[in-house]
């Protein structure tokens, strides 16, 4: 990788988000192995943007095996301070319809097999994660969704499941009754890894289906991979427009709370020695 190549903003999503841009593809070496694919560097409104196809260009990585740590590390190495993470998601509530966009504000993590931290010793690190998504970025996304006239929801909790299987009816019923809004397989550990490297992070869910269906409406088709892909492709153009408008409105000099996430996150050795 050339030392002069830098980026201000990262986007983790599908190749459709940058295929229309004049992008240069690069490899970035990481201590965690290769990234999902080459990283495309493009310029939008004089800002350098790094795009990573989350599952690889040929979708070779299932959710559990996406090289999350390599992806986030590579973006940090490029100098990225803000990450936009668009994703496909299923709705758990009747008022959130396929084609809607949800600007995520909370996470309920149900994953079990993924490396979810960069800090495995010898320095113990506990990063605050009460508010996993950047309010600064969320406000920009909400404003631009309004400007584009999109059908959107200004907040929502995403349940992140391990995958690659979809939920059972019982599991989906539980998530719905708990009041969670959407379900997805990739927002974790992306969000916490970004926080650990002091990168501001925002999740944008494009609703593709009603998960396994709604109990009070048996006519609604349960989710399938084919249905999810069809709906994502059908609606991704408006997501592209939203992302571009959001990127144009990010102040890359803004100091977000996440940019100092490691402050007071590590044990003081003097305190440890007291015990």
Could you characterize the architecture of this molecule?
This protein is an alpha/beta fold and 275 residues long. It has a single domain (9-254), classed as Nucleoside phosphorylase domain (Rossmann fold), CATH 3.40.50. The protein contains 6 helices and 11 strands. Strands 1, 2, 3, 4, 5, 6, 7, 8, 9, 10 and 11 form an 11-stranded mixed beta sheet that branches. A hairpin with a 2-residue loop joins strand 3 and strand 4 (47-53). Helix 1 (68-77) packs parallel to helix 4 and helix 2 crosses helix 5. The protein is globular and about 55 Å long.
- Oligomer category: single chain
User: For this structure, what is the CATH homologous superfamily?
Assistant: Nucleoside phosphorylase domain
Examine the secondary-structure arrangement and name the CATH architecture.
3-Layer(aba) Sandwich
Quick one: overall form?
Answer: globular
What's the tally of helices? 6
Q: The biggest beta sheet, please?
A: 11 strands, mixed
Using the coordinates shown, work out and report the CATH topology.
Rossmann fold
Task: Domain count, please report it.
Answer: 1
CATH class: Alpha Beta
Structural class by helix and strand composition: alpha/beta
Strands, total number: 11
Percent strand: 15-25%
List the uncertain runs: 270-275
Q: What's the gyration radius in Å?
A: 19 Å
What distinguishing features does this structure have?
single chain; 275 residues; alpha/beta; Rossmann fold; eleven-stranded mixed β-sheet; 6 helices; 11 strands
